[in-house]
Every structure is written in structure tokens, then in C-alpha cells.
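hi! just following up on the protien thing from before. the input was this:
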Amino acid sequence: MYQVHVIENGVQAKEKIDHLLTSGYSKENIYLFAHDKDRSEHLTENTDTEAIGMKEQGILDSVGNMFKSRGDELRTKMSSLGLTKTEAEQYEKDLDKGKVVLVASNDVN
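and the predicted 3d structure came back as:
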């Protein structure tokens, strides 16, 4: 099971993360996505959340992401957390608009 939130900025991300932590989610299962790779890394570092890695994606998807566009990479990463292809595509459109997508998962695949 997962929750997805579309937010505007780092301040909203921090507030939402604090709420999720008090609701029983752990930082290891909260992920932030931004279309700009630097912004994504910056938000992940500043909110002490997790980056999607081989544990969530598997080695083939991780290696494959090196050859994909940023949009393809983001959709693959969101799908690795349990989102459907359609959901990942919709949230990637929000990322295209400069928004941040936060995914909190109780159960990483």
C-alpha cells in the first residue's frame, strides 16, 4: 500500500513527511521525485528521505535507467514502488509542471 502526494516545494514536502512519520511511515519508505535531477537530490538530502536504488528496482531496471530519458527513469522508479503504469505516467506529467511527487510506501516490492 502506498500514498502519493503532489506538492509544490520543499517546505510542503517537509510538512507532509513530518505528517507521514507521525502516521507510522518510516523515512526509509518515503521517496521524493522531481523532474530536475539536482532538485530531486537536493530535496532527498534536505528531507532525509530515501533515493530509489537497486533494492526497490532490481539490478536490471537500475542499469537500464542509465540509458533512459529522465521521464522514463522516473516512471520506472515510481512503478518499482507499486504505482501502475498509468499512475506513474500521470504523476510524471505533474513533475513536468515543476511539481514534486512524494510516495510513501508501507510495502516496498
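Residues 63 and 88 are 19 Å apart (CA to CA).
The chain has one domain: 2-8+22-105.
cheers
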